[in-house]
What does this fold into?
Amino acid sequence: MTYHLRLLSGMKPPDLLAEFKRIGVTPEGCELMLGKGELIMIKVHNLSPPAACILKQEMLAKGGEVALGKEMVYLNREQEGEAIIIGTRTQYERLLTLLPRQPFGLAALAAELTDLLEQIRRPLPALTMKNKVFTWGTRTYLMGIINITPDSFSGDGLWSKERLLDRVRRQAEEFLRDGADLLDIGGESTRPGFTPVSVEEEIQRVVPVIEVLAKESPLPLSVDTSKPAVAKAALEAGADLINDIWGLQKDPEMVKVVADAQAPVIVMHNQTAPGYTDLMAEVAAYLRKSIALAEVHGLSREKVIIDPGIGFGKTYTDNLQLIKRLDELKALGAPLLLATSRKSVIGLTLNLPVGERLEGTAATVAIGIARGADLIRVHDVKAMARVARMTDALVRAHGPDQPSNGC
It folds into this structure.
């Protein structure tokens, strides 16, 4: 007899549920077993040895596991270390019935675990900008880049005092036809070695463009700036969203500007130079701080979009790791933007100049969507809209249900 074994690996809960139903599992059985089929691994920092010992014992009793470094055994009570919890959702739920009653700070850990598990399960609230509803998780949205600069790294800068607005109109109309969902307008290049411009110069570049597009384009307008005065002028001119490459953490006035206007904001991870002990943990901590800054100042977290900052303060290897492990940032409970378009990580991988990075960009976009990106920021809207639509059909199981003729 042959049993025709088939490996079911890396399945998301909806796919696993479909398999249960396919073999005739009852609704009650589906509900009971779905949590047992969802393996979740969570890294814990700042754990004391006594807490680690109890955590491991409790998780083992539930059928899970806790990985500890051997040095944890020799640490003094005052010292802290790290652990990786490995278990199914059902095992975590059983753990959390007991953990809040344990000493050594485990009640606080239980609260954080409960919040994280809820974040990764809960659908993100929709965001409305310029009467356009962004329903995160249903499909990938596209942000088209409009650079009002003379020194853009990608060579697409439109800055010119002659017929600037005509050129901007044409690009905005083209992006709309090609499938863009919003436009990102920047008046200062942020490429390596860029020449800073004054607040006045940046306002002079972007505000006239915003005033025109706010009236003529149906697409929401984002403004890529880290200067509070520019952000304020842009919002007053009709911008809908601020894209801050310093995640509200460079100038304390920036968070006040967006909070006063109740404007959605993209917060990006950034630092002046590479150098990480734990890349993903440090990027997540920075973005968590940005979200908290917004909330403290009265801006709802529903209006905060996070960006890991590919190419900003990262090495080539860091950038690859961020793209590969992008889904780890979904635990922050915010829509996730990925901006890899034409960047150096692609050029270094393929040994290609900026103008020949379309296919490399497409690969990063497809993987990024598979890893949970909700929004992608791109130069080549038409091509990336097609990549996103195809990837969505695979990842989100959306698309026309039509028979194939084999072609």
Q: What stands out?
A: The chain has 14 helices and 13 strands. The first strand starts at residue 39 and ends at 47.
